[in-house]
Amino acid sequence: MDEMAVEFLHELNVPFFKVGSGDTNNFPYLKTTAEKGRPMLVSSGMQSMETMRRVYQTVKEHNPNFAILQCTSAYPLEAEDVNLRVLAEYQKEFPDIPIGYSGHESGISITLAAVAMGAKVVERHVTLDKTWKGSDHEASLVPSELTELVHSIRLVERAMGTGIKTMLPCEKPCHDKLGKSVVAKVKIPRGTVLTLDMLTVKVAEPMGVAAEDIFQLVGRTVTEDMEEDDSVLPEVVEGYCKKRKC
């Protein structure tokens, strides 16, 4: 694409400009395109990180609304040449813009991996027949694959979650059935100061002190008699409820 094409597309009021890898190091063209103020997607096939830093600086000066796409310019692209780890490098280098992936590999698996690694934009080519003349057709998706890709991306997006590790509501039935808590390993008379060898962890009913808190019971006094395998309930351990706010 050249400056004349940019003017033509701008007059057509296209929603965004796509800069192909072959034009990415054409800085006058980049500047002209960025000055139009439309969103931009910039592929990075055949470029170095140093060139991409210059691309970022050039576009950013005129237009903050753009994304850089990791791309390897080969058709079809072999898995060992995809270099998905560049996504993480771009995310570190350019943290204030979206990073995406432009793929020319067969199938959809690698593109899905890119989404799981944080790609916010994906580009794949589409064909009606992979046997048509031209290397791009072989590296493209047929419509059914495109449908599967979109569906699978939405599934991955749902699966990404919040990044906050906690027990989820959906896990409660499993926890109620299999979750372990602290029980008496031996008979423990009222007034006994607990030691670790008096305690063990089992599936118990009712559920007692959480298994992960067993060490916090050591040195505390029990306020009721306990039989072997009795659940160690928080309220029968002196000072435990106050510490745990139970």
Describe the structure.
The chain is of the alpha/beta class and 246 residues long. The chain has two domains: 3-160, TIM Barrel, CATH 3.20.20.70; 169-244, Type Iii Antifreeze Protein Isoform Hplc 12 (Alpha-Beta Complex). The chain contains ten helices and seven strands. A five-stranded parallel β-sheet has the order 1-2-3-4-5, covered by helices on one side. β2, α3 and β3 form a beta-alpha-beta unit. α5 (109-116) runs parallel beside α7 (143-160). It is elongated.
List keywords for this structure.
246 residues, alpha/beta, TIM Barrel, Type Iii Antifreeze Protein Isoform Hplc 12, 2 domains, five-stranded parallel sheet, two-stranded antiparallel sheet, 10 helices, 7 strands, N-acylneuraminate-9-phosphate synthase activity, PseI/NeuA/B-like_N, secreted
